[in-house]
Amino acid sequence: MALVTGGASGIGAATVRRLVADGANVVSTDVTTEAGRTVADEVGATFVEHDVSDPAAWERVMSVVAEQGRLDVCVNNAGIVGGGDIGSIPLDRWHMVLDVNLTGVMLGCQHAVAAMRQNPGGPSGSIINVSSTSAITAIPTDVAYVASKGAVRSMSRSVAVWCGQQGLAIRCNTGSRDHLATISPLGRMGTPDDLANGIAFLASDRSSFVTGTDLMVDGGALAVHPGY
Hints:
The protein is α/β, with parallel strands linked by helices. It contains six helices and seven strands.
């Protein structure tokens, strides 16, 4: 059973579709209810309205997850952009972006670990946190987004190591794509389906020995020197 946040559009919607196609029962969540329900109904997933920055909302979502009997995959995808550089971003906007992009992911990891520890047959599962290449090559006009995505990468490694040291077969990785969807050395734009394919790999048993890492789905954008 899989949980996907931010499932109403983009990477989240593509991930919902891909995981259902792979045979998973999926709970999809988003603050955008109409589009979220449309995607879920289209593929036979369950939709729950959900603000990831709200701890009480997580309790409601996890009660729906508990009805499925287990949680195998948690994709923390929900996020927003900041729209402000260091010279202009208002403090309330900074807090809003970090509340969704970082605290929301932390709450997702916390609830996922708790649920996965109760899985029949023993603790197991895969947590995938969606980051961005902007965590490495910064966007100067969006300081909050860049900060949040960089923190998600570091936090994911902490979660992965802690679970390993606790003897839990719970993995935690990040999946990253180019935020600006620039042309890669492969000669085309990246798509939500490209990252959904990477998420599907991290969600599967094929990646059973992969944890604490960042899967870059950027078409080689970070591999090329900016002068070429």
